[in-house]
Amino acid sequence: MPGLYRDHGVVLRTIKLGEADRIVSFMTQGNGKVRAVAKGIRKSGSRFGARLEPTCHVMIQCYRGRELDVVTQVETVEAHRTLREDYNSFTHAVTMLEAVDQVAQEREPAPALYRMLTGALRTLDTTPSPVITPGFYWKLLSLEGYHPHLDGCVRCGAEEGPFVAFDLAEGGVLCPTCGRLGGRRIAPEALTFLSRLVGGELHLAMAEPPDPLHLLEVERLGIAALEHHSERRIRSANLL
Amino acid sequence: MTAVYAGPVQRLIDELGRLPGVGPKSAQRIAFYILKLAPEDARRLAGSIVEVKEKISWCRRCFNIAEGELCQFCQDERRDRTVLCVVEEPRDIVAVERTQEFRGSYHVLQGTISPIEGIGPDQLRIKELLTRVRDDGVTEVILATNPNTDGEVTAMYLARALSESGTKVTRIASGLPVGGDLEYADEVTLGRAFEGRRTLDP
Ligand SMILES: [Zn+2]
Ligand SMILES: [Zn+2]
Predict the structure, then answer these.
(1) Distance CA B32, CA A194 (A)
(2) Do B188 and A87 touch (CB under 8 A)?
(3) What is the pTM of this model?
(4) Distance of alpha carbon B95 from its chain centroid, rounded?
(5) Which domains occur in chain A, in start order?
(6) Do A84 and B115 count as a contact with CB atoms less than 8 A apart?
(7) Percent over 70 (pLDDT), chain A
(8) Nearest CA in chain A to B21
(9) Which of A128, A231, B97, B184 lies 20 to 30 Å (CA to CA) from residue B24?
(10) Is B189 helix (H, G, I), strand (E, B) or coil?
């Protein structure tokens, strides 16, 4: 469909193009993932200014191209300045952007994914909590059809806990016997927290975050599961 | 891409294709340009590549480019060694020098932290910066990384890493471009410009 279109979108990443341009990837509300050229953006005094930096939530107007679209107008919806001025919040936000970039398909509308991302960024900006990013990873995995199986051992079906490991290929927990044969070790407390997260208790989890070590285990496992699912590394996770 | 040309030509195309911003098509175009060059022109090009690698290396103090152990700024006795301006690349030093506002010394990070590219602090000259600040009696560190996302993230990281040193850490101001119109400024840039406002002396 040629011509101009308008949409809401979050800037996922930018890549330098030529002398002064950038290719900007957006997760949009109505058009799925969109890649568009922002001409002259690297010159100081560009009319795009700082509106097209990663995490920015913007209203864009683009001209539809064969491969790449061209950005013709940008207005800020949410600048997420607080988030971008905190090292910890920002690096976490970038891992979410990268995960979305990997699962979203170009020009295939995915409004739920868009809503999840804008919601998570807004929360990270206004009420930062270490629970937001792991919560986002696991919600994203569920949305992608990779809902973790936490109520019984995925190998032998044992329903009695405690479960001690997580099998990435099977997407669920392992009992002590099956866990001896493989899977990633994980503390039972971390698994309890994970079931609260995937059970939609994000706000409760934010109110009483778990022990930082268990939180980190759930975050790491989320990244590993995303990487397993997309078969690609989440490079920004190196900085967490 | 499979090799389609005779050995030496393909080797040249492959080497050129590794240069930043040069894709396979451009590499091929440049290779055929070189093939058509007069022998002395080709030799001068090859010679300048060899010469730059033999004569130029990184300054062992600030990691600017240097002919010898130290760069021109680290050799200059008149430069204040207690004030450090931290930049991303050697070319940024040229930009700062053009302002004629700065008489201190430099430290070149040789890149930025880039979460999106997975480039962390360990891949930059940050450890060396912290050592210099600790050992050389540095009183002020001016963070002059670019005002884009990676530059800001790097500045935030450095501000945190330097917080225990007791040294004053400053960030170059960012705001409206001189010669620009207020109505075209974006919210972040204009917000920064308001924060960085200064008193005008009558
Ligand atoms: Zn089992
Ligand atoms: Zn030097």
Answers:
(1) 59
(2) no
(3) 0.85
(4) 10
(5) 3-81 (2.40.50.140), 129-239 (no CATH)
(6) no
(7) 99
(8) A18
(9) A231
(10) helix
